[in-house]
Write a structure and sequence with these properties.
- With 774 residues, the protein is mainly alpha-helical.
- It has 38 helices and 5 strands.
- Strands 1-5-4-3-2 form a 5-stranded antiparallel sheet, sandwiched between helices.
- Strand 2 (708-715) and strand 3 (718-726) form a beta hairpin.
- It is globular and about 100 Å long.
- The chain starts with 9 loop residues before the first helix and ends in a 5-residue tail after the last helix.
């Protein structure tokens, strides 16, 4: 460790390795593994000593010898590893088995074919049934790494049942490993899904963020196909996640706080904003927090803002604008602008606040406000009359290239609203060389602004524009700028009207900014929940080498513990057999029962009533629900607070098959009017469209879902439709009045039905029909 070469003592150290003292053995083995590569001729003697110690009566020495043998770093060593590792995997001592399992991974790195073609994979699967929990966890991790290209460990229902029965025996890291494994498992039935969720429910109270986030990941995976149930999962997990976030703040462990905030932010992007919006004050920044925590909290506040809490959130952001940190001040102004983009109906108050920021006479505040206003006025051009005239009083505080670029854009687009706008630009043209010698991009914005303003105010801008074009063409500071100036010059020679078509044409209203709606990355990150991907906001392929990625969706080729025939038989085993009682489990393990190959005879070795679930007595199935084939799930639903109604009703609501509609329905107009006047509203839809469509396109979308249109039209910026549909068995009729405001893209629909119990199902079909517009 002091950098002294003591390799010449190699032979003496081999002789000294015969000691029985464990401490001396550790030091000698460390020396041998360090210098074996430099003394490969004598290293064979070291290997012989290590192999001999692999049979030592002391299990600590056996494990230490194997670990050292696996650490030898020269090409001829690996051929001695296979028999030593095979022997270790059968050792009665857990410590030696654990070392042997890690040795399998090292051997796989050296010679993958030797591991895959041998019986190591089968042995690792068999060790999942070991009585020592660390051996089980090491086996799972080893299989995931060795079989990474095949999708990792082969997960079967019997394996999951066995691990769930022993779940509380594992330490924190072991439970995290099992949670990750179970999150990749797809339950065979709704009953099994509820049972597993119920087992994990109390882990949401765990002090470890790894355990809590592992449970959340499993819950999200199980409820992926059930949006209604997933929303209730959001409600259940919100409090534990906020509690852990607060624990990090109180204890000063901001790494924990940041981790929880990243995952909360991802859930909000997934659709949990309504769940967290009541706790928005939890995301207010504290003065002693690091900047990276404040940044993330500001992003979350933007997504939680709505008409009920907007005033409080804006007031808090106003305080951050005068923060001592310039970075946080800028971020706060950006957050105010993002809220205006998200909430068009409440944007007027945001513009008032931004106009007040211009009066603070602070350079970085003024600069960032202009940048934000530039983006907002692309969407809300009607606000320009109130905002643009205020810019003239803020010119002395714009000292940043980005701020000058924003100013030039505003003057080019709305310069006609400022009487002195030509003279403001003239001041920059007079100092063109001094100001823009190192800012060619800013000079490009100045050139474009001057051309636009010339088209609006030709007399005042003619001479100034001529001087600017001459400077850019005859004495350019940048080749691209020269090319742009020549382009504008040639356009102007064709006439102002043609130039206006190219440079200053009418702008379409901006409804959203694409970079703010990247839903694809959100869905991918949900699949990688509780990993570094969430913290980096990158999918794993962006920062992990391909060799270390477990391929998703790849069915593992090796499934030695479960054959296809056994898997088919497994489908008839009820999930109420999910576990053995704790005492039964120990007895089964000690008596050699193969718990990973449980069949109908071994699933209940004690002969106790099969209707009782030994995992805490939850998820039972009474005779009536069994005859119906419907899982009651009362224990789970009560524990997770999933609704106040009966469990059977909730389960049926969440998991009911989709409503079937009658193809090509027929309904007379008189009958439609009569029913519309008699029926009351059964359901409604309120959405903001991301893209528009014509009336005929919308009608066709609904017709494809067996929803017919009886009348439609468009007048005064509003599209109106009257739809109807009939249930497949003709026991219910559904009437719809749908309106779309073409200015703000708000969609509202009123649904009436003489079968109110089916209204929610029909609503889902209607939303599915129009989903391409949302």
């Amino acid at each position: 460790t002091l950098g002294i070469d003591v390799s010449r003592l190699f032979s003496d150290m081999i002789m000294a390795s015969k000691t029985t003292d464990v401490v001396q053995k550790k030091m000698i083995y460390l020396y041998l593994t360090t210098y074996a590569e430099q003394n490969q001729e004598m290293a064979i003697l070291a290997i012989n000593s290590l192999i001999k110690d692999c049979n030592h009566p002391n299990f600590k020495i056996r494990g230490l010898a194997l670990r050292s043998l696996c650490s030898l770093r020269f090409s001829g060593a690996f051929e001695y590893l296979q028999p030593a590792i095979s022997q270790a995997l059968q050792d009665p001592e857990p410590y030696v088995k654990r070392t042997g399992i890690i040795g399998c991974i090292k051997l796989y790195k050296i010679s993958p074919a030797l591991v895959l073609e041998g019986d190591f994979v089968d042995r690792l699967y068999s060790l999942i049934k070991d009585t020592d929990t660390l051996v089980v966890v090491n086996s799972i991790n080893a299989l995931n790494e060795i079989l990474a290209s095949e999708g990792g460990i082969a997960i079967s229902s019997k394996m999951v049942i066995y691990l769930l029965n022993r779940f509380k025996e594992f330490n924190e890291w072991g439970q995290a490993t099992i949670l990750e494994l179970v999150s990749r498992y797809t339950p065979r039935s709704e009953q099994e899904m509820f049972d597993i969720m119920n087992i994990f429910e109390d882990r949401l109270k765990h002090a470890s963020s790894t355990i809590v986030l592992g449970c959340v990941k499993a819950f999200l995976h199980f409820t992926e196909e059930y949006p209604g149930l997933q929303k209730q999962v959001f409600e259940r997990v919100s409090s534990p996640m906020i509690t852990l976030m607060g624990t990090g703040e109180v204890g000063g462990t901001y790494e924990l706080t940041y981790t929880m905030l990243c995952h909360i932010n991802l859930l909000i992007e997934k659709g949990a904003a309504e769940v967290f919006e009541n706790d928005y004050k939890q995301f207010f920044c504290r003065s002693d927090e690091p900047t990276y925590i404040k940044h993330l909290k500001l992003d979350i506040l933007v997504q939680l803002a709505n008409e009920r809490n907007l005033n409080e959130i804006l007031a808090e952001l106003r305080e951050y604008v005068t923060d001592i940190s310039v970075e946080i001040s800028r971020k706060s102004i950006q957050s105010v602008g993002q809220i205006a983009v998200r909430l068009p109906q409440l944007s007027s108050g945001v513009f008032t606040m931004l106009s007040n920021f211009l009066t603070l006479n602070t350079d970085y505040v003024t600069t960032e406000t202009l940048i934000v206003l530039k983006d907002l006025l692309r969407k809300y051009r009607h606000e320009a009359d109130n905002i643009v005239p205020l810019i003239e009083d803020s010119l002395d505080y714009i000292n940043d290239p980005n701020g000058r670029s924003a100013l030039f854009w505003l003057l080019g687009e709305f310069g006609q609203m400022i009487e002195r706008s030509p003279y403001i630009l003239e001041g920059y043209i007079d100092n063109f060389k001094e100001t823009f010698a190192t800012e060619p991009n800013t000079a490009m914005h100045l050139l474009t602004a001057c051309v636009k303003l010339f088209l609006k105010k030709p007399p005042e801008m003619q001479k100034s524009l001529g001087r600017l074009l001459a400077n850019c063409i005859n004495d350019p500071i940048d080749a691209t700028l020269k090319d742009r100036a020549i382009l504008y010059y040639e356009l102007l020679k064709q006439g102002p009207s043609k130039t206006k078509v190219v440079v200053d044409s009418e702008k379409n209203e901006v409804y959203k900014f694409k970079e703010d709606f990247d839903t694809d990355i959100t869905e991918k990150l949900i699949q990688e929940f509780n990993t570094l991907s969430v913290l980096y906001k990158k999918i794993q392929e962006k920062f992990i080498l391909p060799d270390y990625i477990i391929e998703k969706g790849v069915k593992p080729k090796k499934k030695p513990t479960v054959t296809e025939e056994e898997e088919e038989e497994e489908q008839v085993v009820h999930t109420q057999d999910l576990g053995l009682a704790q005492n039964d489990q120990v007895a089964a393990v000690s008596s050699g029962i193969d718990l990973l190959d449980i069949d109908d005879n071994t699933a209940n070795p004690t002969g106790r009533d099969a209707g009782v679930d030994s995992l805490g007595g939850i998820g039972r199935q009474d005779s009536e629900s069994e005859n119906r084939g419907t899982y009651s799930g009362a224990g789970l639903l009560d524990t997770l607070d999933f609704g106040s109604g009966s469990a059977t009703t909730t389960s049926a609501t969440m998991m009911a098959p989709q409503l079937q509609l009658l193809p090509n329905p027929v309904l007379a107009a008189e009958k439609y009017q009569e029913m519309w006047g008699m029926l009351s509203e059964s359901a409604s839809v309120q959405r903001v469209l991301q893209q528009m469509a014509t009336t005929s396109q919308i009608e066709q979308m609904c017709i494809d879902k067996s929803i017919a249109c009886i009348a439609s039209g468009e007048q005064n910026n509003e599209m109106k439709f009257y739809f109807y549909a009939i249930k497949g068995d003709q026991t219910a009729t559904f009437l719809v009045e749908l309106q779309i405001n073409t200015l703000n893209r708000n969609l509202s629909a009123s649904i009436k039905s003489d079968g109110p119990s089916d209204a929610q199902g029909f609503k889902n079909i209607l939303e599915s029909a129009l989903s391409s517009l949302f």
